[in-house]
Structures are given as C-alpha cells and as structure tokens.
Amino acid sequence: MTRTIKNVILIGASGNIGTFILSALLSSSKFDISILTRHDTKSTFPAGVTVYKTDYSPDSLTKVLRGQDAVICALGHDAWSTQFAIIDAAVKAGVRRFIPSEYGNNTLNAKVVDLFSPKMDTKVQVLEYLKKQESKGMSWTGLATGGFFDWGLKTGIFGFNINTQTATIYDGGYRPFSVTNLDQVASAVVSILSYPKETANRYLYINSFTVTQSEILGVLETETGNKWVVEERRIKDAMKEGKMGVGEFGGSMLLLHASFLGEGVGADYGRDEVLANEMLGLPKQDLTDTVRNMLLDMA
Prior knowledge:
Elements: E1 7-11, H1 16-28, E2 32-38, E3 50-54, H2 58-65, E4 70-73, H3 83-93, E5 97-99, H4 110-115, H5 121-132, E6 139-144, E7 147-148, H6 149-155, E8 160-161, E9 166-170, E10 177-180, H7 182-194, H8 196-199, E11 202-205, E12 209-211, H9 213-224, E13 229-233, H10 235-244, H11 249-261, H12 269-272, H13 277-280, H14 287-298
Parallel strand pairs: 1-2, 1-4, 2-3, 4-5, 5-6, 6-11, 7-10, 9-13
Antiparallel strand pairs: 8-9, 10-12
Helix pairs in contact: 1-7, 2-3, 9-14, 10-11
C-alpha cells in the first residue's frame, strides 16, 4: 500500500513556475511545506513556511531532505544538472517521491531534445537517473505541459507580440499544439502528490487546451478589437535559423516556435499522447477566457 505524502520540500520556489507551485501547495492545505534555497538567496517567501538554506554539498542536502516524503524541483535550465546531487541526497535521506524540473516540452520526444541539444540532454539524463532509483525505494513523476500559455503569450514564445499587435504565423497557422496555464501546471503537481500510487514512476502529459496559431490570432483580434499585422513564415526556415543562432535570444525564440509547430515534435498531447487531466482531476480551461483575463491584467 502506497503511503500518503505529507512532508513536501520545494526547490526553485522563487521562479516562474515555482511561485505558482508554492501557492497551490499552500492553498491545498494537504501538505507540510518547506523550501530549499541557496545560502546567498535574496528571495522572500510567505510567512510560516520553513526555509532551509544549503550550499548543495551532499551532507547539507541529505540533512535537509531527511524526513521529507517528496521533493519538487522547479529549477531553471541553468540549474538542471544540480538535480543529480539532489537525487542522490534524496535517496540517502529516504525521500519517497521526486518530481524533476520538467514542466514544458516532451523530453521523451527525440526531435524536441535534438532542437535544444545539448541543454535538454540533461533532462533526458535526469529521467534515466531517476529510473535507476526505483529499486532503492524512491519513485518519480515527470510532467510535460507544453508551453506555459498565459506566461508565453506575454513573452512572445508563440509568435505574438501583445504590445505591437503583430504576429508571426507559421505554415498558415493550422498546426495544433498543447499548452498549459501556470495555475494548471501547479494544480497538476498538487494532484500528483495527492495520488502517489496512480502517478508513481510515470511520465504524464497535461494541458489547459489544444490550440492553433490561427485560433489564438482570432481571439486576440476579437478581444483587442483590432486587426493584427501578420508575417507569414515557414517553420522549416525558423528551425534552420534557430539552430544557427543558438545561444542568442532570437535563435532561442525561433527554436521555441519550432518545438511547438515543427514536424514530428509531438506537441499535440491529446492526439500524440494520453492526457492525464481526468486522472488528476484538473479543471477545464478556455482559450478565450485566458486571453481576456491576460489582457485585462496587462491593461
């Protein structure tokens, strides 16, 4: 029988997704929450939440993780490799569930990994390393969400510039891809911990909805009351240019576009994979409502 998860520690609580996960964990009132951060952090956290500071040495990590039932990593890409040391310490400390820093593109899709290689190779290696820990008593759950829609629409990763009301549309804008709002991602993490048996040693896929660029553009034009300026492009060209510009902001943005819209990247989770929304009890969310609320927040 799988024991209930109660003591949960979050690593990366001050980041884009970490803040939402922390809020959802606290709102659920199901867990005793603590946060792990570096000694030199200047981040502040809600009153009443225990904050542990570490130098990420093996002894320091093991000491902090002892007594925890689950570890949630919400680290940015520059810190993905630190997860190996955290995993080792978690196993030594007797942690029973580990949720790695996934929350995005499908790490199990080789074409997606190749787009962002060598950076995304680390995610693959972390998953493989976690599988090796199953025999030592620690389970894991990976979570693929597609792009963070509400955040990504503001930052341009889907090809839309809210401020200039311009859009880059690829191949007619008709390719569907799955996206997830940040609050939905956080709700999924809470559900994973709430259903430890059902989610153990699994790579799960969720979304808020599946959309096309054409559908997004239509809603944006309706909600802003303006006709947007559109540039038509081919995703193959964007992929080539993105690879040539790796390490530069423009190149990274083009690769992000390709990761949602490229051929064979498996970005439509409802078609290419099995969605875990129902199993996790996630609410249905709506494109129009999301865009409308986002525009109101930006006004």
